[in-house]
Structure formats: structure tokens, C-alpha cells
Amino acid sequence: MPDTAMPDPSLLKYGIGQPVPRQEDPLLLTGRGRYTDDIALEGQVWCVMVRSPYAHGIIRGIGTEAARAMPGVLGVFTAADMAEYGPMRCLLPFTSKDGSPLINIERGPLAADKVRFVGDPVAFVVAETKAQARDAAEAVELDIEPLEAVTEASAAAAPGAPQLYDHVPGNVVLDFRHGDAEKVAEAFAKAAHVTTLRIRSNRIVVCAMEPRSAIGSFEAEEGRYVLRLGCQGVFGLRNQLARDILKVSPEKVRILTGNVGGSFGMKASAYPEYACILHAAKLLGRPVKWTDERTGSFLSDCHGRDHETEASLAIDAEGRFLAVKLVSYGNMGAYLSTVGNNMGTGNFTKNIQSNYATPLLLVETKNVVTNTTPISAYRGAGRPEANYFMERLIETAAREMGKDPIALRRLNHIRPEQFPFRAASGSIYDSGHFTAVLDRALAAADWDGFPARKAESAARGMLRGRGLGNFLECTAPPLKEQGEIVFGEDGSVTIVTGTLDYGQGHWTPFAQVLHARLGVPFERIRLVQGDSDRLIAGGGTGGSKSLMASGSAILQAADIVIEKGRRAAGYILEAATEDIEFADGRFTIAGTDRGIGIMELAARLREIGPLPQDVPNALDSRTVLDQAPMAFPNGCHICEVEIDPETGHVRIDRYTSVNDFGVIVNPLLVEGQAHGGIVQGIGQALHERVAYTEDGQPLTGSFMDYGLPRADDVPFFGFESLPDPCKTNPLGAKGCGEAGCAGSLPAVMNAISDALGGKHIDMPATPERIWAAIHGA
């Protein structure tokens, strides 16, 4: 007989695939969110950092006497006071092409011998109030002998450049290579056509809505540090602070994170301020709070991007790609962040392949220290840049060869029958319909209607261009991730996991996953992420992996709940465990209508007396998901721009994207993530650039002189999905958080180049640059 049972109505409303509004939003929109700066602990005092006004210089002395004597001051601290603490360093085990290891740089909490960028912290003041601490910080006297500075990576690696460290010859910390240089050279030698572009990926200020803020305290009886701050994962940050900096066992450190107003990679790791306030809290026996101001954020928060690249593509006479090559300088800034070396090396390598069957690739990158703010991950972290390079090469090659750029892409796409596909990068792609995604995007964008729109623009004296950005991202592989489900006495069901929501909206999709698997009431589900004491594992949020990691861990924990529930239900229903079935939140005896709901079962287990040894006394479960393979979200973005030749101003007129994010748990949130990434890509393409003077002074130190995209800079977005579920995780999800940047950089810049008749200009495509390109200036 056919199964005519109606599905649980709640699954139609809250199940996987439903556009459920974010459950966090009412709290945040009514001002009830709890960010770090909202917290005021009893007895709290304030910290203000003293930063170098020079980009490079020798510290001859720091005068603290006047500051110490000022009202309310409790202490003034320099590097000598912080000598007991360990350094921050790059944690990734990179090797140069000659086999030698990365030349690491150990950064203490405060600069001791030299300052190496404007904003380098050299001291800090703690006082009863923030105003008192700020006044005293201004009274600290710095005796710094200025040295020549260098801000560009290629210039820093050139002979005769100022040297930042005695142990880093030529300022090069890593001379990276991936690929067979001889085979790639042979491919270029026999190519019918070679396209080469010099491309700059401009340096970006992260500009999170919430500046960094932290409160440090010390529990003397337990000998434990407690740090409250916004971050991207409390488990990993706790381990870094404990192991590397505070030099204590992990249980002696607790990290607490509430709401976080954005990060995009920047708040993932430890910063000098955290050790400083924890030291002062232990010494003074009082909580110490530090909150950055926006100008301080521009100087001290890790920046993003900043690569100078020569990109080349070798093509045979039929138009097939033979090899792609990137030769780059990566600007690391003055110190090495935890992951800063990865963007222009590992992530360039994994992502330059994109969705094309290019058989050979070569990535050569010199990572170089300069007298600038350190670089770290920024939304995509090398993935958008690599896709941008590839798409600019393809578009330019098609124009140079007189070929249709769409046909050129179709010819080189990896075909569905080639999966699993081993890419030249070493990645193994499991799924994707790349040509189908491209074709859907062309139709959605009305590609064939472009000539009429171009003619209409021309009639008004405007230039119109269209650009296409195919992309494929290799997400970060999910690390070990905790999945825990707790049935509370109040009828709640709590998920505990080690990713961390800093704006994405984890509560709702995680609850959808749990609701779909266990049938527990959606409105009773709670989420705990921001307390390191609750975690035994956790990879944090980053690399577009959170749903793959936590979602899979939740499913693994739910399977344990179901197995425990079958044993418990068998005991209560007086049936054999093997006769108990589970579906739609209910345990039933097979072939009967006798059963018990999962919530009722959880309550009964709390109420009844001693149970047999083989019967669980609760349905709670805790598990750790082992590491899982990366996934490969992909898509196609199409942008049309209109340019005023008199002013060089760009207006984005139309924007469409078609994406393969695998199984989409919540379409509403996924589309929002795509919109955010697209807007940030538009920001980098049109507006944003950190600029320095020759002596290392930042020219873009506030929102008065640093351009961000505004509402009137972006159009309404067309968004469609053409999913091909991932085969390497149980949800079938591929990740979406960074894909908007990967598609928008090439789509916008290809559109501008098209409007300019094929000319290449670097990001940001400001009116000045575009006007100069138009008028040959």
C-alpha cells in the first residue's frame, strides 16, 4: 500500500529548505543584544594603549613618570613588564620552495626594541576611568629614533630596502612554490596564445560594525584568567592564549563571547591588547576593560588582501587551457598573523583552478614583511583573489584571441562525468554542474538583451559594460567539531557547538537541522557557542564551513539521541529495542500505534526512579565530529555597469547571480550571506584602498578618507540557486559565506573593462582611475 501519512506540519514551516526568519533578530533589533562593550563588571577599570606614531624606528626610551602621577592612574606598563608572556606567531607549517621552513616572527604584547608600523603598541595605561586612562596615555613620552620605512611588498623585497628584522634577509619570510615549474614552462612554450596581466589586489580595512573590545579578569582562588570579547571561536582562541601567550594549561583560561558585530576573519586570533589587560587584571585584582576607537581599529586591526601578482594563462589553438601561473608578492605587514601566510600561497593554489579543467598550475609567492599593519584573513582570504585573477585572464584572452568568452569558458569547464575530479591543486572535486550554472545565469541576466541596453546608454552619452564572474571556492575543511544536545528540565533543547555566530545567524539553521532530524519543537531549541568551558572541541567560524561542521556534528549527536531513545522507549513501552522505530519526533513499536514523543520521553526519564543498567537515564548526547573534507561552492555572477565618461563615475545597473551551495538549509539566510559578500566585493572593486605615504603614515585612517559602499552604490540583486548536493558531508551543504566576494570581484571588474573597450585597470576602480583610462591620462 502507498504511504499516505501526512508530513509533520512543523517540518513544512521549520524544516530544512524553509526560509525561516532569524530568531536572533528581534533581540538585536530591539537593542537587547549584549556586546562586549555593553558589559560593566564590578570594580572594572580601563585600559588605553599607547601606539607608535612612526612606521619604523628604534625605541630609545619610554617616559612614564608623568603619566603615573596623573589622577586615577593605577599603572603604566611597557614591554619590560610583559616579558613573562609568550609571543604571537604564524601557526601554519609552511615551507619555502627550497625546503626551508617559514621564517617565523615572534611578536610580544608590546614592542620592545623597535616599532615597525604606525599603531604598533609600545605601552598601556590602566586607570579608574577611560578618560583618565586616555589623558595619561597622551602623557607617556616616546623617544623613538625614526628609520626609513617601506610599505610595498615588492619594494621591501628589492635590494637595498630597509630591513625590518635581522633574521629575515631581504624581508622575505616565505618563498613559496606549488606546481611543477618545468612542466608549466613547457606548456607556456608550446601554447598558441599566452595572456599576462599585472593585477593588484588592494589592501582592505575590515571595518566591522563593532570595534574590538575586551574585558580581562583573574579569579585568584582558581588561578584562572577570564576574557570576555568578540571573536570567531572561543575554543581555539582559548588554546592559543593559554598555550602560546599566557603559558598555562587550557583549563586555566575561560573565553566568553556574547553578540559580535562582525569580524570577516579579523577577530579570529589573539591580539596584543588581550595579554595586556589580563596581566593588569591579575596584578591589580580588578577587571580591566579595553575598547578600541575607530581610528585605533584602522591602525591595529589586521587588514586584508594586498597582493601584487603577475597572472598568466597558456591556451592552445582550440582554446583549451594548458596552464595557469601566478607570480606574486604578498604583503604580510610588520608581523605575521596566525594565518596571514595562507592567503597568497595555499588559498591561491586551491582556488586559481576554479571550475576549469586546467591541467597544470604554478603558484610562486614571496611573502614579505613591511612597515604596515599586519595582514590576516578577510572574507574569502585568497579565494576571491584567485577567482578574480582567473576570470580577468579568461576575459582578456578571449578579447586578444577574438574568441567568444562564454564559449571559451564552456569549452574548459569540468564536466559532470569527470567527477570525482582531481584538480592540479590537489583538491578532489565531488560535484558540480558548472556549464548549467553559467547558462542559467546568462538567461537570468538577459544576456542577449544587452546590446539594446548598451545602445540606450550610448544615446544618453554613457558607456555600458557587462562582466561575468564564474567562481569556485575551496572552503576550509571542517576541523574537529563538537555536537552536543541537552534536554533541559524546562522543556528546552540546547545545542552546544564550537562554531561561533558573529553575524551569520547560526541559531536558526542549526535549529532547523535538529528539528528536521529529531522533531523536537523548533521554538524550544536553544544554542550555546560562546563559552569555552562548555566545549571539548571546536573549529570556530571561518572559511565558509560552519554549517558543514556544526550541522554534521548536530546530526551525529542526534543519531546518538535516537539510539538512546530507542533503548529508553523500549523499556517504558515494554518492548524490545529492535522493535522500536523513530520518525517525526516519536518512538513507536513497529506495526502498532503505541508510542511516545521524544520530549515526553526525555521528561519521563527525569521522573522515574532507578533504571536498568542498559537503559539511559537521559537522552543527552555529546560527540566530536572528526575532520571532514572541504567543499566546493560555485556559481556565476553577471554585472552590468554604466559609466559617465565625463566624470568616470560607475553605476552598477544590474546584478544577477546563480549559485550552487549544495543543500540549502535556510534560503533566506543564504541569500542574505550572498548579498553581504557581493557588497563587500563591490566595495573592494570600486571604493576601498588603504594608502600610505612613503614614510609609512596611513592616509586612510578613518571613514572621512576611506571609502565604503553605501546603499545607493548597489542595485537590487537577482539571486537563484542551482544546487548539486555535496557528497562529502551528511547535509550535502557546500558553504556560502564568502562566495559573494569570489563572484563579485571579477563580475564588476570585467564589466568595467568591457565598458572601457577591454582596458585593464586595478581595483579600486575610482572615478579618477576610470577617467584617466578613458582620456588616456
From TrEMBL:
The keyword Metal-binding does not apply. Residues 30-148 form the Aldehyde oxidase/xanthine dehydrogenase a/b hammerhead domain. Its EC number is 1.2.7.4. It is an enzyme of class 1 (oxidoreductase). GO terms for molecular function: anaerobic carbon-monoxide dehydrogenase activity; iron ion binding. Gene3D superfamilies: Aldehyde oxidase/xanthine dehydrogenase, a/b hammerhead, Aldehyde oxidase/xanthine dehydrogenase, molybdopterin binding domain. Signal peptide: none annotated. This is Carbon-monoxide dehydrogenase large subunit.
